[in-house]
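Supplementary Methods, section 5.1.

A reviewer requested that the exact input to the structure prediction be made available. We therefore reproduce it here, unchanged from the version used in the analyses.
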Amino acid sequence: MSTNRRDFIKKTAIGALGVTISPGLNAMSAKSYSRILGSNDRLQVAIQGLGRRYSAFVPAIAANENNIELRYLCDVMKSQRDNAALAVSKLIKDPPILENDIRKIMDDKEIDAIFMATPDHWHAPGACMAMEAGKHVYLEKPCSHNPKEGELLVAYQKKFKKVVQMGNQQRSSPQTQEIIKEIHNGVIGDAYKAIAFYVNSRGRVPNQVKANPPEGLDWALFQGPAPRREYTHNTWDYNWHWYGWDYGTAEMGNNATHELDIARWALDVKYPEHVEVVAGKYHYKDDGWEMYDTMDATYRFSDNKTILWDGQSRNGYDKYGSGRGTIVFGSEGSVYMDRGGYKVYSLKGELLKEKRTDGNEGGTALGGGGDMSTLHSVNFFDTIRGKAALTSPIDEGAISQMLTHYANIASRIEKAIEIDETTGRIRNRKAMKLWSRTYEPGWEIRPV
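The structure derived from this sequence is encoded token-by-token as follows.
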């Protein structure tokens, strides 16, 4: 990368860290803007984690108007690298370099940004390493494995001044942005409660059996920041979500992140004062699933506001009429919203307004991607270039992620927890023992 290009991107990114954009810049035509930037505007990116989610980023990367070069595809499993290379070759002409170890990519000074879609335990350590190496980061949910990592992510972003977009892509939905603005402007009066829900019919999970790592898997690097243990059959391929707390964050981190974020945004609240849960494993009780598969959580905030979480991982009954979404109740009506749009109802339950999108963002199926993910990725690129403000900056995303951590912690100690609504810190000593986690020696995130 030329020094001029690096300096240019660095300078334009400074404005991206604020919350307002110059009206003159917004009004500038694409043609005049391209004359100023020219070839120096090209961003070079890498994707880490080539499982079910990476393909959601490829359309934005491949679009000519975004002027992106995909330099690396990275995964600890050889078959994932090979399959991804074949898939992206259908959209991207120049083949990216295939790499096993993300740390080698971080050493490449030509790389501007990294998309991170690894297992949960890698997210915050990888993002902090990337920021320290001078990279911007698109960080998939959950942004952190535990509350302490959320604090560290925000601290790293403030120190290294990098653009860090959390991958809760519904923040980039025009319909969601529109209706939440209307809620804040009083379309349903005073919003006081939200129900966030997720319904799936996940089946049996294999019981863990010690085995040799599959061919092509770098098991030590997969574990990365997590304490070392022997491999068990099929751990690497998605079931790490349910095999204890070393790698995953259960369904709260896996999916509740999205809807709880929308609920918190709609109610315009930050940290709750009180969190209590009822959770358990109720289905396929003899299988290998080690987490709860059903959870009801209640978050109580100041000003008498409440968020309810209703999560069913393995019972497919759609009590709300869809697989996932958020319902917001106000003094004068209510709003239902999901990835497909929104509906506004009167206090009598009459439908007053509806807006649906033709978008194709994935719902409850594994993997996914679609128009919201593309918009979210483009917003990330535009912010790096100083043309926009992030729709989900990490300091905002980390607060929403805390809601999932609170529920997981309350579930694990089987007790309601009290929280300082200013700092977000838990008041219960037993709960605070789960504020962080144990790391493999040498992999700890150092404070900054």
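Residues 3-171 form a domain with the Rossmann fold fold (CATH 3.40.50.720). These observations are discussed further in the main text.
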